[in-house]
């Protein structure tokens, strides 16, 4: 029976063999590697991956699709909302210090998934995700560009990222109304030590009024905390490099 894509799950199934092959080459799976695929769907990417790996863990929320996937002898199926999956426990279950994570992420919750995985980054070797191209543009954006924002800062602090492949709408069934792309994310081995919650809060405040100078938003936030450092608030949020936000968070944490 043909599976009908469910809008509430944001389902768009990859169907272009050339694109599938290009994604698998970008991931470069090797036999025996512990890998987890998010949202395997109709197994377009799952099948070539498991053929190379020998074994693959998949996370699927759709009950009907999960039942289909369980019929495949080389797949371990976690039927769950990915936002409720403890990836640290998954790595422990696979007896792996690090796991590789891949997937065609549901576009309607892609950003929450990225932040959820950030909480488990210590057990992740790398991540390859298909996402809305606009989201990937924001993830890899440089300062002083329109795409640079909270997502850019929070991810670039922790990952080296690159846009590795463009994926047009006609590569899917049904076609989404947006362009897609594949991003590669490699966690830094020695990231700057920072209070993630504090960094997240100050970056959120900074970009809350991105068209105004920071003295109107982050400046007042810093004053309320008695911070009298050298951080220049005569800039707009998008003009501040990631390293400056990280240094400010470290200064605030030291003061606390």
Characteristics:
256 residues; alpha/beta; Rossmann fold; Helicase, Ruva Protein, domain 3; 2 domains; two-stranded antiparallel ribbon; 10 helices; elongated
Secondary-structure-derived class: alpha/beta
- Helices, by number, come to 10
What is the approximate shape? elongated
Number of strands: 9
For the residues shown, what is the average pLDDT?
93
H/E series, N to C?
A: EHEHEHEHEHEHHEEEHHH
Question: Could you name the CATH class of the largest domain?
Answer: Alpha Beta
Adjacency order of strands in the biggest sheet:
4-3-2-5-6-9-7
User: Going by CATH, what is the homologous superfamily of the largest domain?
Assistant: Vaccinia Virus protein VP39
What is the third-level CATH name, the topology of the largest domain? Rossmann fold
CATH A-level architecture of the largest domain: 3-Layer(aba) Sandwich
Roughly how much helix do the residues carry, as a percent range?
Answer: 25-40%
- How many structural units, i.e. domains? 2
Low-confidence stretches are 1-10
Strand proportion, as a percent range, falls in 15-25%
* Biggest beta sheet attributes: 7 strands, mixed
Cα radius of gyration in angstroms: 20 Å
First-residue to last-residue Cα separation: 60 Å
């Amino acid at each position: 029976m043909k599976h009908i894509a469910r809008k509430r799950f944001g389902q768009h199934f990859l169907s272009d063999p050339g694109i599938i092959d290009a994604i698998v080459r970008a991931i470069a799976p090797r036999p025996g590697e512990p890998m987890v695929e998010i949202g395997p769907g109709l197994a377009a990417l799952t099948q070539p991956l498991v053929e190379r790996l020998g074994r693959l863990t998949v996370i699927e929320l759709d009950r009907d699709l999960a039942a289909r996937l369980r019929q495949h002898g080389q797949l371990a199926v976690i039927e769950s909302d990915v936002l409720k999956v403890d990836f640290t426990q998954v790595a422990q279950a696979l007896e792996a210090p690090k796991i590789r994570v891949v997937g065609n992420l549901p576009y309607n919750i892609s950003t929450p998934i990225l932040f959820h995985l950030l909480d488990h980054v210590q057990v992740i070797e790398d991540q390859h995700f298909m996402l809305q191209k606009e989201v990937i543009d924001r993830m890899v954006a440089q300062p002083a560009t329109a795409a640079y924002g909270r997502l850019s800062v929070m991810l670039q602090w922790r990952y080296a990222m690159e846009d590795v492949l463009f994926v047009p709408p006609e590569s899917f069934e049904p076609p989404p109304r947006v362009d897609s792309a594949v991003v590669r994310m490699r966690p830094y081995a020695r990231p700057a030590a920072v209070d993630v919650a504090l960094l997240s809060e100050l970056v959120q405040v900074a970009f809350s009024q991105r068209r105004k100078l920071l003295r109107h938003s982050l400046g007042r936030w810093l004053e309320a905390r008695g911070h009298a450092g050298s951080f220049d608030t005569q800039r707009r949020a998008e003009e501040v490099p990631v390293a400056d936000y990280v240094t400010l968070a470290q200064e605030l944490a030291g003061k606390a």
